Amino acid sequence: MSDNKLIKAIKEKSNSLESEMSFFDHLEALRWHLVRSAIFIVIITCFVFYYFDTIYDVFIMGPSKPTFWTYRMLCHLGDFLNRPGFCINKININLINTEMAGQFTLQINSSLIIGITLGVPYLLWEIWRFIKPALHEKERKAASGFVFYATTLFLLGVLFGYYVITPESINFLASYTVSDKIQNLFSIDSYISSVATLTLATGLVFELPIIVYILSTLGILTAKFMRESRRYAIVIILIVAAVVTPTPDMMTMTVVSIPLFVLYEVGILVSAVVEKRRVKKHDDLMES
Questions:
Q1: What are the CA-CA distances from residue 96 to residues 103, 113, 183 (Å)?
Q2: 10 Å Cβ neighbour count for 215?
Q3: CA torsion, ordered 152, 153, 154, 159, to nearest 10 deg
Q4: Taking the alpha carbons of 134, 139, 140, 145 in that order, is the dihedral positive or negative?
Q5: What distance in Å separates the CA atoms of residue 119 and residue 45, rounded to the nearest whole number?
Q6: Which spans in the chain are helix H?
Q7: What is the model's pLDDT at position 13?
Q8: In contact, 162 and 113? CB cutoff 8 Å
Q9: Is 179 helix (H, G, I), strand (E, B) or coil?
Q10: What pLDDT shows up at residue 21?
Q11: Which residues contact 12 (CB under 8 A, 6 or more apart)?
Q12: What is d(CA 136, CA 147) in angstroms, rounded to the nearest whole number?
């Protein structure tokens, strides 16, 4: 009797060790996925750091110049509509550095931000490679486009934030004054922070359909709830548009609001598709 108990205890201990090893194996696999992502981001960061002069002049300082693509398109639009006020010929922005190592840390921080932004697609791919073995064949097919759609939406959001929201905000804030006696002198850190925040925040906002897909898959969100909450969503979207575009121009708010409305409607369609698949899967299970 005691021998049986001993054998049973050994088996239980063996199963426990196997599960612990499996858990640590997963942690080890996750660690290497993250390590590869970090190495990729570091490589991009070093590349940006090496060519920082060109990147700083063309991309980082682009929205502060009247020759920026957005301002030129607005000028063409003003000519087409016979509205010369659309054309922006000068941006009153004066940048200063107030710290001894300010410009050096500026180069490092800016390179890192750009490296992380460009490294997001590879990071998503590594995350997908980590979770893929744990999925069934049907789940793999259903989620096979995760990296593509998440990356596409993020990059579209970054481009929209960089070419639409950022230049409009900079143009307004740089020329806004409470009194003629107050001179606008902006620190370079403040400028970089504004450009990075507006650009990356928009990229994250554009991930709304992906978030809706995940919540709908978990059964937390439904298309019916989103349709019934549309009026509240419109108010929230208008508030978000007013916050991210600190300009009194209704046209700018409208341009920012339209993509958010579209994303919300796309989210409703995504939720409806997920719900339809879940109902079909349940019906097939009941029939079997």
A1: 10, 21, 13
A2: 16
A3: 90
A4: negative
A5: 9
A6: 2-50, 52-55, 69-81, 102-131, 137-142, 146-160, 166-175, 188-205, 208-217, 223-228, 230-244, 250-287
A7: 46
A8: no
A9: coil
A10: 47
A11: none
A12: 17
Q: Which single residue is written with the structure tokens 């500026």?
A: 106
Rounded CA gap, 41 and 47, in Å?
A: 10
pLDDT at 10: 45
- Both tokens assigned to 1: 């009797």
Placement of tokens 């919540």 in the chain: 215
Tally of CB atoms within 10 A around 229: 14
- Numbers of helices and strands, H then E, in the chain: 12, 2
Structural tokens at position 131: 């979770």
The pLDDT, as a whole number, for residue 48 is 95
> Which residue ranges in the chain fall short of pLDDT 70?
1-26, 85, 134-144, 244-249, 251, 282-285, 287-288
The encoded tokens of residue 61 equal: 């300082």
Count of residues for the chain? Answer: 288
Give the H/E segment covering residue 238: helix 230-244
The predicted-structure confidence for 186-214, as pLDDT tens digits, reads as follows 888 889 988 998 898 889 889 989 888 88
Q: How far apart are CA 28 and CA 34, in angstroms?
A: 10
Distance CA 88, CA 64 (A): 11
Q: How far is CA 196 from CA 6, 57, 201, 230, in A?
A: 63, 15, 8, 30
What's the pLDDT at 36?
Answer: 92
pLDDT at 124: 86
Of 132, 152, 129, nearest in space to 140 by CA: 132
Answer whether 0.85 is exceeded by the pTM: no
Per residue in 224-246, pLDDT tens?
889 988 899 888 888 877 776 66
Contact yes or no for 154/203 (Cβ under 8 A): yes
